Each structure stands twice: as structure tokens, then as C-alpha cells.
């Protein structure tokens, strides 16, 4: 098999022309740092009823009206699903004892351990 050629500087520059990156990124909502332990269920988003893929726990480390960031994720599955999935979470302590949500993963981060940014599809907080 033949090795693919390395892209030249001119090719890279040409491909990036017209791509504008905003100078500043402004979030829709402010985030609040927190430490809320949650029980999680990974649920299939496929057509067929959304079966449970895994169960576990995590910690919400920041939250806004639009989403949250999950860290310290532990499940009974050795890996995240390769098919589309949602995360159902329920607070088990911390600042938001009545928090329940159905979330869609939007970004994964790995800094020693896996972290997931999620957006809320359904959210309920009982005081």
C-alpha cells in the first residue's frame, strides 16, 4: 500500500481560507461550578424503544440551564457505546437533590479521565 503524501503548507492554507473563527465565544448561559453525585443510565437512541446500555455513576462538576459537565464516570460497561445514546441522570446528593435529566452527549474530554459535556433534552429539578 502506498503512503499518502503529506499536505503542503499551500494546501493547508487554501483549505483554511474563508473559515472564520469568532474572536470570542460567548455561552448562552453562565455555568455554575458544583459537585453533584448522580446515578446514570446510558440509553440507546436507536429506533426500537431506547434500551438500556449501561448503568453507573458520575459527578456533575458544572451546570447551566442548557447542560452540564460529567466527570468521574463509572459504568458497568467497559466502554461508551459506538451507537447514538442518551444519558439519564438522577442526583444522589449535593446541591441539587431533586435533579433529574435526560441528556445528549455533545463533547468528550480526556484529561487523565473521561469527562462528558451534555445538553439537557429534558430537565426536572424538584426543590
Strand and helix layout:
Blueprint: H1 9-16, E1 32-44, E2 52-63, E3 67-75, E4 85-91, E5 99-110, E6 114-125
Antiparallel strand pairs: 1-2, 1-4, 2-3, 3-6, 4-5, 5-6
CATH architecture: Beta Barrel
The end-to-end distance, rounded to whole angstroms, is 62 Å
User: What proportion of the residues is helical, as a percent range?
Assistant: under 10%
The largest β sheet comes out as: 6 strands, antiparallel, barrel
The SS-based structural class is: mainly beta
Please give the CATH class: Mainly Beta
- Tally the helices: 1
Describe the structure in your own words.
There is one protein chain. By secondary structure, the protein is mostly beta strands. The chain has a single domain, classed as Beta Barrel (Thrombin, subunit H). The protein has 1 helix and 6 strands, in the order H-E-E-E-E-E-E. The chain has one helix spanning 9-16, and strands at 32-44, 52-63, 67-75, 85-91, 99-110, 114-125. The longest helix is centred in the first third of the chain and has 8 residues, at 9-16. It starts with 8 loop residues before the first helix and ends with a strand.
Amino acid at each position: 500500500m502506498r503512503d499518502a503524501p503529506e499536505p503542503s503548507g499551500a494546501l493547508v492554507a487554501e483549505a483554511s481560507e474563508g473559515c472564520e473563527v469568532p474572536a470570542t465565544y460567548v455561552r448562552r448561559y453562565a455555568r455554575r461550578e458544583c459537585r453533584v453525585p448522580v446515578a446514570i443510565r446510558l440509553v440507546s437512541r436507536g429506533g426500537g424503544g431506547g434500551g438500556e446500555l449501561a448503568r453507573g455513576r458520575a459527578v456533575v462538576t458544572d451546570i447551566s440551564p442548557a447542560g452540564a459537565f460529567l466527570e468521574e464516570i463509572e459504568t458497568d460497561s467497559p466502554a461508551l457505546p459506538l451507537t447514538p445514546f442518551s444519558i439519564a441522570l438522577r442526583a444522589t446528593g449535593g446541591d441539587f437533590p431533586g435533579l433529574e435529566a435526560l441528556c445528549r452527549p455533545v463533547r468528550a474530554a480526556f484529561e487523565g479521565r473521561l469527562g462528558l459535556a451534555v445538553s439537557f433534552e429534558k430537565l426536572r429539578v424538584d426543590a
